[in-house]
Design a protein that fits this description.
binds S-adenosylmethionine; Vcp-like ATPase, Chain A, domain 2; globular; alpha/beta; 2 domains; 7-stranded mixed β-sheet; 23% helix; single chain; Rossmann fold; 6 helices; 32% strand
C-alpha cells in the first residue's frame, strides 16, 4: 500500500475539482479559501485519502501523476502540454535505454517524461541557455523523479549555438524559437536513422524550418511529417452529456525528421 511520507508531494482536489499541489512537511498547515488542512493528517495515510478542511470542505489527497505535477509545478518557461508530449514520445519512438538530446530544457516538463521513457539504462542530456530556467528545471525534476533516475540525466546551462559536447544520440528534440539555426549541430551528433523532433508554436516557424530543410538538408534528413494534436474534453451533468465549453484550442506543432546515412 502506498502511504504518504514526509517530503512527498500530494495533490489535493476540492469539491469543485480545483487542484492544489502541496509538499508534505510535518506540523505544517495548508491554508486555502475553504479553510485549513493539517499536513499531519495526511502523513502516514494511504493514497486516495478523503479529508475535511477546518471549514468543512471535503477534499481528496492523491499522489500526483506526472501530468498533474507538470501542470502545477512552478514554471520558468512555458511547458509543452501533456497532449503534445504524449505524441512527441510516440513520434520520436523514445525507448528504454535511448540516448536523447533536448534543447531547451525550459521548465523541465518534457525532460521529466523523456527521463521516464528512457529509464535507468538511458540518458537524457538537456541544454538550457538561461541560468534561471536551468535552475528552475533542476528543482522541478529533482522533486519528482526517483533517485535511481538521477544518473540518467545531464542538465547543462548552455546555449546550443556553442555546440553539443556529447555524441551518438538516438533521438533529439528541439523546443526553442529558431530550430533551423541548429540543424547542423544536432545532425552532427545524431546517429544515422536517429529521429529529430522540433516543437513550434506558429505557422511561420514551421515555414522557416521547412524552407531550411528543403534548401540545405533534403540529402541528410528525411521528413516524416508535421503534426498538430487537438484534444476535447467531455462533461456529463445530469441528462446533459456534451463537449466541455472551454478547450485549449492551440498549443503547438510537432515536426519530425529522420537522419539519413
Ligand atoms: C518553450 S521553452 C521549453 C519548455 C520545455 N520544453 C518544457 O516542456 O518545460 C524554450 C526554452 O528554450 C530555451 N532556449 C532558447 N534558445 C536556446 C538555445 N539556443 N540554447 C539553449 N536553450 C535555448 C529558452 O530559454 C526556453 O527556456
Amino acid at each position: 500500500m502506498s502511504v504518504f511520507k514526509e517530503g512527498d508531494t500530494a495533490l489535493l482536489i476540492d469539491s469543485k475539482g480545483r487542484k492544489y499541489l502541496i509538499y508534505l512537511k510535518k506540523d505544517a498547515i495548508f491554508s486555502f479559501h475553504r479553510g485549513n488542512v493539517q499536513i499531519n493528517d495526511i502523513i502516514g495515510k494511504p493514497d486516495g485519502l478523503k479529508i475535511t478542511s477546518s471549514m468543512g470542505e471535503k477534499l481528496i489527497a492523491f499522489r500526483p501523476t506526472l501530468e498533474e505535477y507538470i501542470l502545477k509545478m512552478k514554471r520558468g518557461a512555458q511547458i509543452i502540454y501533456p497532449k503534445d508530449i504524449s505524441r512527441i514520445l510516440t513520434l520520436l519512438d523514445v525507448f528504454p535505454g535511448a540516448k536523447v538530446f533536448e534543447a531547451g530544457t525550459g521548465s523541465g516538463a518534457l525532460t521529466l517524461y523523456l527521463l521516464r521513457a528512457v529509464g535507468t539504462a538511458g540518458k537524457v542530456i538537456s541544454y538550457e541557455k538561461r541560468e534561471d530556467f536551468h535552475e528552475r528545471a533542476k528543482i522541478n525534476i529533482e522533486k519528482f523523479i526517483s533517485p535511481d533516475l538521477k544518473d540518467a540525466l545531464i542538465l547543462k546551462n548552455k546555449d546550443l549555438s556553442e555546440g553539443i559536447d556529447e555524441i551518438d544520440f538516438d533521438r533529439a528534440i528541439l523546443d526553442l524559437t529558431e530550430p533551423w539555426l541548429f540543424l547542423d549541430k544536432v545532425l552532427a551528433v545524431l546517429k544515422p536513422g536517429g529521429i529529430l523532433g522540433c516543437y513550434l508554436t506558429t505557422v511561420l516557424q514551421i515555414y522557416s524550418l521547412m524552407e531550411e530543410f528543403e534548401k540545405n538538408y533534403s540529402d541528410t534528413l528525411y521528413k516524416i511529417g508535421i503534426f498538430e494534436l487537438l484534444e476535447r474534453k467531455w462533461e456529463k451533468e445530469g441528462l446533459s452529456l456534451r463537449p466541455a465549453l472551454r478547450m485549449v484550442a492551440h498549443t503547438g506543432f510537432i515536426v519530425i525528421f529522420r537522419k539519413l546515412s
